[in-house]
Amino acid sequence: MTLDRINAPSFIDLEPFTLVKPDKLNEASGLTAFILEQGQQEVCRLEITFPAGKWYEPYTGVSYFTSKLLAEGTQKHSSGELQQIIAQYGSFFEVNPGNDQVTLSIFCLSRYLKPMLTLLEEMIEQPLLDAEELDKLKSQARQNYALNLNKTSYLAGRAYIHLLFGNDHPYGRVLDDQAIEKVTLEDIKKFHQHAFHWNQASVFISGKGENLNAFIQDWMKSKNIPGPLKGSLSFNSPRPVGQKIKVEKEGAVQSSVKAGFFIPSRYEESFPAIYMYNEIFGGYFGSRLMQNIREDKGFTYGIHSSMVQDIHTSYWSVQTDVNGDNAEATVREIKFEMQRMQDELVSEDELKVVKNYIIGSFISSLDTPFSFMDRFKATYFNELGDDYYERLMKKLLAVTTQQIQDVAKKYFDPEQLNVVVAGK
C-alpha cells in the first residue's frame, strides 16, 4: 500500500466513552484507598499521598526536606540499605513533594507488593530524620540552586511565580540559599509528626496482580489509627496585571520570556472555551504562536502556552527562549496574537483541527492502568466528579468560535499581560 503524504487523513468523530474507574475500598479512620485492576502484565504502581505540600508547611523548604528525608534512612535501615532492598526486588521508588500533596510511589512486580508496602510503611512511620542526611540534602539543594541561577529559563520562571503570588503565598515560595539555611531538623520532625498521618492519607493501587484487592483491604485494617485533622488554610496573592520585569543575566546570549496572568478555574462554566483558546493560541505544535514566532519570524525553536490548574488557584502562561535581541519583538507578537483572537473569529476549519487534536491526544494518553489512575486522581483531589473527563470532552466538542472570541475578550486582554524577560 502506498502512503498518501499529501492529503491528511479524514477526521473520525468521537464516540461516547466512559473511562475505567477504580474501586473505592473501605475507609479506615480517614484513610482512603482506590484500586484499579487492569493491564496485561503482573506489575503494579502503589502511591501513598499526604496533604503535606507547600500549602501546609510552616515556611519554605520544610515540606521538601521532610519528604526527601523519608527515603534517607529509617530506624531499621540506612539509606543505602533501603536502596539495596528496592533494587533487590527490581522496583523503582520516588517521592514527589508538590504544592499541595506529597506522594510516595513504588513501581514493582505485583508479587513483590507486600515487601514494598512494608518498606514504604517503615519510611513513613519510622524515618530516621538524621542531621547528617539533612546536611547532605541541603548541600545538593544548594548546588542545584547555583546551577539554576545560570539558566535564564529558571530565572524567568522564578520571577514570574514571585510576581503572581508574592512572598506570603505558598505557591510563590522559592528554595534559595536563605530558605535552605533556615530549615532545621527540629522543624522537620514537627512537620512529619503533624502531616504524615494515615488518617489523612490517600492510597492508589493500579495494575494487575493476584488478590490485590483482598491484600489491600486486609492491610487497611492495621491503619485504623486516629490522628490530627487538617484545618482549612487560605492565602492571598497580589494578582498583578500589566506588570513587566527584566532580570539581567550577565553573559547571557539568549533571553527567556515568561508571560501570563490568573484565569478562571476548571470549575467555571467558561472553562471549556478557555481550554480551547489555549490550544489554538499556543497549546500544540501547529498553534498560532508556533506559526507566527517560530515558522514566520524564526525567533525560536519552540513556544507554547499552558494552563496550571492547582487545587487553590489557576493561571495561564506563555513561555519561550529567544535570542536576546528578539525578546521585545517576541513579546509584541504574543500580544498581537492575543489581540487577533479578540478581533477575529477562529475559522471553523482551524477549530475542527484543534478539537480533533485534543480528543486524539486525550485518548492516546490512556494507554496504561497508571494513566487511567492519574486521570482519576485529578478528579478526586479537585472534587470534580467521577465523570468529569467524559463531560469535559463533550463540552469541548460543543465549543463555538463565538465562545472562544468571548473568552478572549473577557479573560485574555494583551494589556493585562504580565511579562518577565530574563537574560540579555
Give the structure's gist in a few sentences.
With 424 residues, this protein is an alpha+beta fold. Helix content is 43%, strand content 17%. The chain has helices at 62-69, 79-88, 113-125, 131-148, 152-165, 177-182, 185-195, 212-221, 271-283, 288-296, 327-343, 348-365, 369-381, 388-398, 401-411, and strands at 23-24, 32-37, 43-50, 92-97, 102-109, 202-207, 244-248, 254-262, 303-309, 314-323, 418-423.
Order of helices and strands: EEEHHEEHHHHHEHEEHHEEHHHHHE
Q: Pairing-aware structural class of the strands and helices?
A: alpha+beta
CATH class of the largest domain: Alpha Beta
Describe the sheet with the most strands: 6 strands, mixed
The domain tally reads 2
> Spans with pLDDT under 50 lasting ≥5 residues?
none
Euclidean distance between termini CA atoms: 52 Å
Helical amount among residues, as a percent range? 40-55%
Radius of gyration, taken over Cα atoms and rounded to an integer in Å? 24 Å
The CATH level-2 architecture of the largest domain is identified as: 2-Layer Sandwich
What name is given to the CATH topology of the largest domain?
Cytochrome Bc1 Complex, Chain A, domain 1
What is the fourth-level CATH superfamily of the largest domain?
A: Metalloenzyme, LuxS/M16 peptidase-like
Q: How many DSSP H or I helices?
A: 15
Strand content: 15-25%
Mean pLDDT: 93
